[in-house]
Amino acid sequence: MPQILWNRRFKAAAIAVAIIALVVLAVNILLIGGDDFVIAFNSLLNPPLAIIITVLAAIIWRQMSAEKHSRLLWAGMLIGWALWTLAETVWAIYTISGQELPYPSMADFFWLLGYIPMGIGLVTRVLTMPTKPNRSQNMIIWGASAATILIAVAFIFRPILQSFDPDRLIESILNIIYPLADLFLLIIVWRLFFTYEGGDYGFAWRLLVVGFIFMTVSDFIYTYSTWQELYYPDSKVNLISWLLVDFPYTMSYLMWFLGVHALRILLREQPYVEAVIQPKMVRRYGHVLVYTKNDDSVIDVSPNFSRLYDVDNIAGKPLAEVLSVSEQVVHSICEEIRVEGIVADLPIEVVSRSGVSHDARLCGVAIFNRQNEYTGADLLVRVPIEDDSFDKALSQEARGMVRHVLDHSGSNYKAEIRQFLADYHLSYLTSLLNIASSQGGAAMSQSLVDELQETARKHNWQLQLNAQTVLDSTVYPLELLREALPVLVETAKAFVSNMTGPAFVEAHMKELSSRFGEAVHEDAARYGKMASEVAFADNR
To answer: How far is CA 490 from CA 149, 270, 369, 448, 451, in A?
Structure first.
């Protein structure tokens, strides 16, 4: 059930609409005030409703300034309703003055002119909808449209053409144009009705669609009854006039009001952001290279070695002495490298020359000659750091060696970064998927998943997406996730913006972003860069 039904402002508006509808029914059924009063009452009720709807549409249009399709939609609907408001006002002036409204009149000019921007706006909505009706829904749409066309032909077009009167030429033309315009809008709104299957936005748009259906029914019967001179004959109220023409027409404005009011509430309310799981931060490391011979003595070290240890006479010294660790630890490390060929993220405690102890990690790759004899190792000491200054002393060649050791030693640094990036971006994707589901129903959320899958296909990203967890797994290559996830987030934002409006989505994303610390956003930017754009940041 749509959550907006529990909104206090919407409930108040719905109660007011129900009261107005009941009052209209009572006045007409009981013929309160006589025929003249009922006729005037039915005519004068619509102008204030039209004015309110136009004002609300103008407010929504202003909120849509950031997205051209939404802005065009609401500009068309705003202008259409504004022109219909002028038509209602002209009709009301004639009614108040006691004059008989000529047909055609200036009111008809405004009504017919209003169909043009209204049609453009609704067509824009249909063309830019992120989801489309399925096959069975299309069959219902075209079936209902065909039935409506047959009814119009049988009861409106055929009688008018059969009893064509040259003296009523303009009236005959208008009696054909009105139903045609209504048919055009009806086919469009039927598509909208079946496109939205649930959610708050779907509920609001369905109210608007019901309003257009009421208007079409009223216009059809009005056209038929005026041609047959059954609409308030001799200024007398009859069942056709009020029940089949005036009441549905007033109900169209009441439904439009509820729909526009609901959309305004949804666009203005503070977006709810569910609790997010904070991505596990990837610990930053500085990297020191140590090159050894087959006897575990040191050949050379990287330039930043001096930030940890004294560098005097390093060449030829035992590894245990250079790293200031026990010979037993070094023996265990070197034995594992000889046997396994690698060592990955082995915890070691190193004490710098300043006496500071560091819980470091050691990675290493064995070097073998062509005879498969062990000739030494490339070792990498990973020291926890707080900033990026530690590795600045490394040359491009040394940074390449760091990447080589990390990649070939089996270090889990890529897995940590991969999980961090996945958690970070999936927070946004899951939140956007939840918006699509809550505002447009299950069909809309599935359409978003389909859109994301199509985006992945176009980029040749081998990703499997679903409506529950978005990604079926996070165990994809880091390079793939680094490239794909930001694009998928932008695709989802565009999809949901097209459905709810960009202002709502931006507010939602801003609120979600505030749930992460600044360090999280900084690391997301750092690790999200392509490897070709940075020399070394992805190894921290």
So the answer is: 42, 21, 50, 12, 12
